[in-house]
């Protein structure tokens, strides 16, 4: 049973009772109709079977005090059938998916947010009819799903590598608890809009065409609030602050989006909650870089160290490691410290990749210069023969 059913179906008529009927009257009428139409008493009568279903469905709502209240609220809020008429007028024959954004030219969720803080009529509808997602394609019917919520979190480099649990405070629009979103002072109800008589749309004639547009007096809602809810000042929405704890797994990367199913806004009227999407920013580290699960580090060494070899003690994210630079190591060589990168829960382990930068001193002492000149005299020139042919072309 969907919200749409609630708007389209007159459960009072189905049970043959008045809107003001007491719960006893409703129960009595249901029992009588259910007995009369029960399939056991009417074998083979499909009409009776249909009636029995209709009566049961109506009683499932009206027989439940809470559901009945919500049903009444929704019917009074949307006027009976007004939007269905509008949707057909907008070119959707009966049976086609109902999409209010077609009717009002809104962009679906994420579009103009008028009712909650400035008019968010589209929003209210997307909450009730589909929840979160976004406009466009046909959405699954069903009870009102809460909206998705987006949040951004900046993590320290090392927290992202190791994983971290952080409290996250969200401020997001939600349905007012005091008036349950209808904007009316408790004890009062919104009343039918005098301009559109509850239809939510007004019709304008131009030549042989007639155009339907949302009623300006009630912003298409079909009702107006005479005594405003003190909590939300009649908008039906309030900004709510929630704090929740979010676990960021080891190895979470900059730009990654983490989805926490069901941690978005609570569903409307018992519907499922939306999702929370957390966009992760990772602050850069002054020493380490990261490629996937590997950490990277540049380490300067002298020419002498590259030629003669050395042991290098370098930092890791949570300690140090000693790496052997063998004699005759070329510039740019990458050494690997196994297991010193991201350690994931599932057992995957990254490494620390150390790139050796051979640094050339800008100035040297006289002794060093003398030693280098001796060194140069003892060393064959670099192998550049493969360049000679090209060089000769231009000489
Ligand atoms: Zn309110
Ligand atoms: Zn109106």
Walk me through the structure:
The protein folds into 3 domains: 1-82, DnaJ domain (Helix Hairpins, Orthogonal Bundle); 107-282, Urease metallochaperone UreE, N-terminal domain (HSP40/DNAj peptide-binding domain, Sandwich); 296-393, HSP40/DNAj peptide-binding domain (Sandwich). It is 29% helix and 24% strand. The chain has helices at 3-8, 11-15, 23-37, 46-62, 65-78, 82-89, 100-104, 121-129, 157-162, 303-308, 366-378, 385-393; strands spanning 149-155, 164-175, 191-192, 201-206, 209-214, 223-224, 237-248, 257-260, 276-282, 289-291, 294-302, 310-316, 319-325, 334-337, 352-359. A 4-stranded mixed sheet has the order 10-11-15-14. β4 (201-206) and β5 (209-214) form a beta hairpin. α3 (23-37) runs antiparallel to α4. The longest helix has 17 residues, at 46-62. The N and C termini lie far apart (88 Å). The relative contact order is 0.10. Bound molecules: zinc ion (2 copies).
The fraction of residues assigned to DSSP E strands is: 15-25%
Largest sheet: 4 strands, mixed
Poorly predicted runs are: 80-141
Give the number of DSSP strands: 15
Series of H and E elements: HHHHHHHHEHEEEEEEEEEEHEEEEHH
Overall pLDDT score: 79
Strand numbers in spatial order across the main sheet: 10-11-15-14
Whole-number count of domains: 3
Shape: elongated
Q: What would the CATH topology of the largest domain be?
A: HSP40/DNAj peptide-binding domain
Q: Count up the helices.
A: 12
Instruction: Output the radius of gyration.
Output: 36 Å
Small molecules held by this entry: zinc ion
